[in-house]
Design goal:
By secondary structure, the chain is an alpha/beta fold. The chain has five helices and ten strands. The strands form two sheets. Strands 6-7-8-3-9-10 form a six-stranded mixed β-sheet, sandwiched between helices. α3 links the parallel β6 and β7. It is globular, with a radius of gyration of 17 Å. The N and C termini lie far apart (about 50 Å). The N terminus is likely disordered.
């Protein structure tokens, strides 16, 4: 049997146009299907606010499109399932981990370093790193088309961080999801992403990163 080739994507999967939020912007950005873009910048420059606006969690001006369909044309809960934000600190509103997951099996638990028994844990016993990895697994259960990752490995050790990077890469390759990854770690940004932006002075600047994470001109 001959494998069918994927049709060429003529438009970016995620497109941000003239987006303004909390007096920051306007921002323009596009990410193709299956592509990971990194975003870096000083603390307080607005990276998290930009992600929240793309996820339609904060008031904003301008527009965001998902595969050519404007955010304004999609109900907010549906948009947030398809354009999933993983914040620095994940939110847990029920006592047991399993209450946050559907009944179907979660294929990302073991790759993220958990056994199925983790679903029976109390949220109160979770460390910050465990919450972050389980929050990613929870988000992936909705099969999002876009992942907005805000410092997803900030509270993880090297082994757990590597596992999370692998899970995101595999999900992106398997589904064609677009990823916008905020990281203060230049080496990580160079490792996980193929395009790189720096947010500074309310402007998104294209940057080239070497394999060691250094920008052109740095030493």
């Amino acid at each position: 049997m001959v494998a069918l080739e994927r049709p060429l994507v003529s438009n970016p999967l995620l497109r941000v146009s003239q987006l303004m939020t909390h007096q920051r912007g306007p921002f323009d950005l596009s990410i193709d299907a299956g592509q990971c873009v990194s975003l870096r910048g000083p603390s307080g420059s607005g990276k998290s606010l930009l992600l929240r606006a793309i996820a339609d969690l904060d008031p904003h001006q301008g527009e965001v499109w998902l595969d050519g369909v404007a955010c304004a044309q999609i109900l907010a809960p549906q948009w947030r399932r398809q354009v999933a934000l993983l914040p620095v600190e994940s939110q847990w509103w029920l006592d047991e981990v399993s209450a946050h997951f559907p009944d179907e099996a979660c294929p990302w638990l073991i790759p993220l370093g958990f056994s199925e028994a983790a679903l029976g844990w109390q949220v109160s016993r979770l460390s910050s790193g465990e919450k972050q990895r389980l929050a990613l697994a929870r988000a992936l259960m909705n099969r999002p088309r876009v992942l907005l990752l805000d410092e997803p490995t900030a509270s993880l050790d090297e082994v757990s961080a590597a596992a999370l990077e692998t899970v995101v890469a595999n999900y992106r390759h398997d589904t064609g999801a677009a990823v916008l990854w905020v990281s203060h770690n230049a080496a990580q940004a160079a490792r996980v992403a193929s395009r790189h932006y720096r947010l500074q002075n309310q402007q998104l600047q294209n940057r080239q990163l070497q394999a060691n994470g250094l920008q052109e001109g740095e030493s």
